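Support request, please re-run this one:
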Amino acid sequence: MTPLEQLAVLAAGLGSGVLISTVGFASLLSFPVLIALGVPPVVANASNTLGLTPAGLSGSFGFRSELREHPGLTVAVAVTSAVGAVAGAALLLAAPASSFEAVVPWLILATCLLVGVQPAVTAALRRRRERRTDPGDPGAVPTDTGRRTRLSPTTTGFATLTGVYGGYFGAGSGVMMVAVLGFGLDVDLRIVNALKTLSVLASNVVASVVFVALAPLDWQVVGLLAAGSVGGGYLGARVARHLPGRVLRTLIVVTGVVAAVLLLRAG
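Re-run finished. Output below.
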Protein backbone atom coordinates (compact mmCIF):
# COMPACT_ATOMS: atom_id res chain seq x y z
CA MET A 1 0.00 0.00 0.00
CA THR A 2 1.47 3.35 -1.04
CA PRO A 3 1.70 6.31 1.36
CA LEU A 4 -1.17 8.02 -0.49
CA GLU A 5 -3.34 4.90 -0.12
CA GLN A 6 -2.46 4.71 3.57
CA LEU A 7 -3.53 8.33 3.98
CA ALA A 8 -6.81 7.57 2.20
CA VAL A 9 -7.57 4.69 4.60
CA LEU A 10 -6.62 6.82 7.61
CA ALA A 11 -8.92 9.62 6.41
CA ALA A 12 -11.70 7.10 5.78
CA GLY A 13 -11.31 5.90 9.36
CA LEU A 14 -11.54 9.44 10.70
CA GLY A 15 -14.61 10.25 8.61
CA SER A 16 -16.28 6.96 9.45
CA GLY A 17 -15.67 7.53 13.15
CA VAL A 18 -17.48 10.86 12.94
CA LEU A 19 -20.35 9.23 11.05
CA ILE A 20 -20.75 6.43 13.61
CA SER A 21 -21.52 8.97 16.33
CA THR A 22 -23.65 11.24 14.17
CA VAL A 23 -25.80 9.76 11.43
CA GLY A 24 -24.84 6.11 11.80
CA PHE A 25 -23.75 4.87 8.36
CA ALA A 26 -19.98 4.75 8.73
CA SER A 27 -19.17 1.70 6.60
CA LEU A 28 -20.74 3.35 3.59
CA LEU A 29 -17.72 5.67 3.57
CA SER A 30 -14.87 3.34 4.53
CA PHE A 31 -15.93 0.13 2.79
CA PRO A 32 -15.98 1.61 -0.76
CA VAL A 33 -12.54 3.13 -0.11
CA LEU A 34 -11.13 -0.31 0.72
CA ILE A 35 -12.78 -1.86 -2.34
CA ALA A 36 -11.36 0.90 -4.53
CA LEU A 37 -7.89 0.08 -3.20
CA GLY A 38 -8.29 -3.54 -4.28
CA VAL A 39 -9.01 -5.20 -0.93
CA PRO A 40 -11.21 -8.31 -1.48
CA PRO A 41 -14.81 -7.70 -0.30
CA VAL A 42 -14.92 -10.23 2.56
CA VAL A 43 -11.47 -9.17 3.80
CA ALA A 44 -12.49 -5.51 3.48
CA ASN A 45 -15.71 -6.07 5.44
CA ALA A 46 -14.04 -7.97 8.30
CA SER A 47 -11.10 -5.54 8.49
CA ASN A 48 -13.47 -2.58 8.32
CA THR A 49 -15.55 -3.91 11.23
CA LEU A 50 -12.48 -4.44 13.41
CA GLY A 51 -10.90 -1.13 12.43
CA LEU A 52 -14.01 0.91 13.25
CA THR A 53 -14.60 -0.65 16.67
CA PRO A 54 -12.53 2.06 18.45
CA ALA A 55 -14.87 4.69 16.99
CA GLY A 56 -17.86 3.07 18.68
CA LEU A 57 -15.93 2.97 21.94
CA SER A 58 -14.87 6.61 21.85
CA GLY A 59 -18.29 7.69 20.58
CA SER A 60 -20.07 5.85 23.39
CA PHE A 61 -17.70 7.49 25.86
CA GLY A 62 -18.64 10.84 24.39
CA PHE A 63 -22.33 10.00 24.97
CA ARG A 64 -21.75 8.66 28.49
CA SER A 65 -24.09 11.15 30.16
CA GLU A 66 -26.97 10.18 27.83
CA LEU A 67 -26.32 6.46 28.35
CA ARG A 68 -26.49 6.88 32.14
CA GLU A 69 -30.05 8.25 32.01
CA HIS A 70 -31.61 4.82 31.35
CA PRO A 71 -29.07 2.19 32.49
CA GLY A 72 -31.42 -0.76 32.04
CA LEU A 73 -32.21 0.30 28.50
CA THR A 74 -28.53 0.82 27.77
CA VAL A 75 -27.71 -2.74 28.85
CA ALA A 76 -30.65 -4.18 26.89
CA VAL A 77 -29.65 -2.46 23.65
CA ALA A 78 -26.03 -3.58 24.03
CA VAL A 79 -27.02 -7.20 24.70
CA THR A 80 -29.52 -7.49 21.85
CA SER A 81 -27.08 -5.94 19.39
CA ALA A 82 -24.29 -8.26 20.52
CA VAL A 83 -26.43 -11.39 20.28
CA GLY A 84 -27.58 -10.46 16.80
CA ALA A 85 -24.02 -9.70 15.69
CA VAL A 86 -22.90 -13.25 16.52
CA ALA A 87 -25.42 -14.62 14.03
CA GLY A 88 -24.49 -11.99 11.44
CA ALA A 89 -20.75 -12.66 11.67
CA ALA A 90 -21.34 -16.42 11.49
CA LEU A 91 -23.50 -15.91 8.39
CA LEU A 92 -20.75 -13.89 6.70
CA LEU A 93 -18.15 -16.60 7.33
CA ALA A 94 -20.41 -19.55 6.54
CA ALA A 95 -21.66 -18.25 3.20
CA PRO A 96 -19.38 -18.46 0.13
CA ALA A 97 -17.42 -15.29 -0.62
CA SER A 98 -19.21 -15.11 -3.96
CA SER A 99 -22.53 -14.77 -2.11
CA PHE A 100 -21.29 -11.78 -0.18
CA GLU A 101 -19.87 -10.21 -3.34
CA ALA A 102 -23.24 -10.67 -5.03
CA VAL A 103 -25.35 -9.20 -2.24
CA VAL A 104 -23.15 -6.34 -1.02
CA PRO A 105 -23.99 -3.89 -3.86
CA TRP A 106 -27.67 -4.30 -3.05
CA LEU A 107 -26.98 -3.84 0.65
CA ILE A 108 -25.17 -0.60 -0.18
CA LEU A 109 -28.07 0.59 -2.35
CA ALA A 110 -30.56 -0.27 0.41
CA THR A 111 -28.43 1.65 2.87
CA CYS A 112 -28.37 4.63 0.53
CA LEU A 113 -32.16 4.55 0.58
CA LEU A 114 -32.11 4.52 4.39
CA VAL A 115 -29.69 7.43 4.46
CA GLY A 116 -31.86 9.35 2.02
CA VAL A 117 -35.03 8.90 4.06
CA GLN A 118 -33.35 9.48 7.42
CA PRO A 119 -34.45 13.15 7.64
CA ALA A 120 -38.07 12.09 7.10
CA VAL A 121 -37.73 9.38 9.74
CA THR A 122 -36.21 11.82 12.20
CA ALA A 123 -38.92 14.40 11.54
CA ALA A 124 -41.63 11.78 12.00
CA LEU A 125 -40.12 10.71 15.31
CA ARG A 126 -39.96 14.32 16.48
CA ARG A 127 -43.61 14.99 15.53
CA ARG A 128 -44.70 11.79 17.21
CA ARG A 129 -42.86 12.72 20.38
CA GLU A 130 -44.36 16.23 20.39
CA ARG A 131 -47.89 14.87 19.94
CA ARG A 132 -47.49 12.47 22.84
CA THR A 133 -46.41 15.23 25.23
CA ASP A 134 -48.53 18.15 23.96
CA PRO A 135 -51.04 19.11 26.70
CA GLY A 136 -53.42 20.44 24.05
CA ASP A 137 -53.64 17.08 22.28
CA PRO A 138 -56.47 14.88 23.67
CA GLY A 139 -54.44 11.78 22.86
CA ALA A 140 -51.22 13.03 24.42
CA VAL A 141 -49.41 11.11 27.11
CA PRO A 142 -48.25 13.22 30.09
CA THR A 143 -44.54 13.78 30.09
CA ASP A 144 -43.88 11.91 33.32
CA THR A 145 -46.27 8.96 32.83
CA GLY A 146 -46.89 6.31 30.23
CA ARG A 147 -43.43 6.60 28.69
CA ARG A 148 -41.92 3.48 27.19
CA THR A 149 -38.36 3.27 28.48
CA ARG A 150 -37.94 -0.51 28.18
CA LEU A 151 -37.64 -2.70 25.11
CA SER A 152 -40.88 -4.46 24.25
CA PRO A 153 -40.67 -7.97 22.73
CA THR A 154 -41.34 -6.49 19.28
CA THR A 155 -38.68 -3.80 19.63
CA THR A 156 -36.25 -6.37 21.04
CA GLY A 157 -36.82 -8.56 17.99
CA PHE A 158 -36.18 -5.77 15.52
CA ALA A 159 -33.14 -4.58 17.50
CA THR A 160 -31.71 -8.11 17.39
CA LEU A 161 -32.28 -8.30 13.62
CA THR A 162 -30.45 -4.99 13.28
CA GLY A 163 -27.59 -6.57 15.24
CA VAL A 164 -27.58 -9.48 12.78
CA TYR A 165 -27.23 -7.02 9.91
CA GLY A 166 -24.51 -5.18 11.83
CA GLY A 167 -22.49 -8.37 12.24
CA TYR A 168 -22.92 -9.32 8.58
CA PHE A 169 -22.23 -6.00 6.88
CA GLY A 170 -23.16 -3.07 9.09
CA ALA A 171 -23.42 -0.12 6.71
CA GLY A 172 -26.57 1.70 7.77
CA SER A 173 -27.15 -0.38 10.90
CA GLY A 174 -27.04 2.80 12.97
CA VAL A 175 -29.79 4.34 10.84
CA MET A 176 -31.85 1.16 11.26
CA MET A 177 -31.39 1.27 15.03
CA VAL A 178 -32.51 4.91 15.18
CA ALA A 179 -35.76 3.91 13.47
CA VAL A 180 -36.28 0.81 15.65
CA LEU A 181 -35.65 2.60 18.95
CA GLY A 182 -37.34 5.81 17.89
CA PHE A 183 -40.62 4.09 17.09
CA GLY A 184 -40.40 1.59 19.96
CA LEU A 185 -39.49 3.94 22.82
CA ASP A 186 -40.53 7.26 24.28
CA VAL A 187 -37.13 8.79 24.96
CA ASP A 188 -35.41 11.90 23.62
CA LEU A 189 -33.73 11.66 20.24
CA ARG A 190 -30.38 12.55 21.81
CA ILE A 191 -30.68 9.35 23.90
CA VAL A 192 -31.72 7.34 20.84
CA ASN A 193 -28.61 8.65 19.09
CA ALA A 194 -26.43 7.60 22.02
CA LEU A 195 -28.02 4.14 22.11
CA LYS A 196 -27.50 3.84 18.37
CA THR A 197 -23.77 4.48 18.82
CA LEU A 198 -23.61 1.91 21.62
CA SER A 199 -25.41 -0.66 19.46
CA VAL A 200 -22.83 -0.19 16.69
CA LEU A 201 -20.07 -0.68 19.27
CA ALA A 202 -21.65 -3.86 20.65
CA SER A 203 -22.14 -5.34 17.19
CA ASN A 204 -18.61 -4.46 16.10
CA VAL A 205 -16.97 -5.84 19.25
CA VAL A 206 -18.69 -9.21 18.98
CA ALA A 207 -18.20 -9.49 15.22
CA SER A 208 -14.54 -8.47 15.63
CA VAL A 209 -13.90 -11.30 18.09
CA VAL A 210 -15.32 -13.76 15.58
CA PHE A 211 -13.37 -12.23 12.70
CA VAL A 212 -10.05 -12.21 14.58
CA ALA A 213 -10.47 -15.92 15.27
CA LEU A 214 -11.82 -17.06 11.93
CA ALA A 215 -11.77 -14.44 9.17
CA PRO A 216 -9.04 -13.24 6.78
CA LEU A 217 -7.92 -9.76 7.82
CA ASP A 218 -5.68 -7.04 6.42
CA TRP A 219 -3.96 -5.83 9.58
CA GLN A 220 -2.50 -2.74 7.94
CA VAL A 221 -6.01 -1.65 7.01
CA VAL A 222 -7.24 -2.47 10.52
CA GLY A 223 -4.52 -0.35 12.12
CA LEU A 224 -5.04 2.65 9.87
CA LEU A 225 -8.83 2.59 10.27
CA ALA A 226 -8.52 2.23 14.03
CA ALA A 227 -6.08 5.14 14.29
CA GLY A 228 -8.41 7.42 12.37
CA SER A 229 -11.71 6.21 13.79
CA VAL A 230 -10.92 6.54 17.50
CA GLY A 231 -10.61 10.32 17.22
CA GLY A 232 -13.48 10.57 14.78
CA GLY A 233 -15.88 8.73 17.08
CA TYR A 234 -15.31 11.08 19.99
CA LEU A 235 -15.40 14.15 17.74
CA GLY A 236 -18.66 12.98 16.22
CA ALA A 237 -20.26 12.61 19.64
CA ARG A 238 -19.26 16.17 20.52
CA VAL A 239 -20.71 17.74 17.38
CA ALA A 240 -23.71 15.41 16.88
CA ARG A 241 -26.22 17.92 18.20
CA HIS A 242 -25.04 20.68 15.85
CA LEU A 243 -24.02 18.87 12.65
CA PRO A 244 -25.72 20.17 9.48
CA GLY A 245 -26.08 16.85 7.70
CA ARG A 246 -27.83 17.64 4.40
CA VAL A 247 -24.74 18.15 2.25
CA LEU A 248 -22.82 15.39 3.99
CA ARG A 249 -25.74 12.99 3.59
CA THR A 250 -26.01 13.80 -0.10
CA LEU A 251 -22.31 13.16 -0.66
CA ILE A 252 -22.51 9.82 1.16
CA VAL A 253 -25.53 8.71 -0.86
CA VAL A 254 -23.81 9.63 -4.13
CA THR A 255 -20.63 7.83 -3.05
CA GLY A 256 -22.58 4.75 -2.06
CA VAL A 257 -24.54 4.61 -5.31
CA VAL A 258 -21.35 4.98 -7.35
CA ALA A 259 -19.65 2.24 -5.31
CA ALA A 260 -22.63 -0.09 -5.71
CA VAL A 261 -22.78 0.49 -9.48
CA LEU A 262 -19.05 -0.17 -9.82
CA LEU A 263 -19.37 -3.40 -7.82
CA LEU A 264 -22.30 -4.54 -9.95
CA ARG A 265 -20.38 -3.85 -13.16
CA ALA A 266 -17.30 -5.65 -11.80
CA GLY A 267 -19.45 -8.67 -10.93
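Residues 3-114+147-266 form one domain. The chain has a mean pLDDT of 83.
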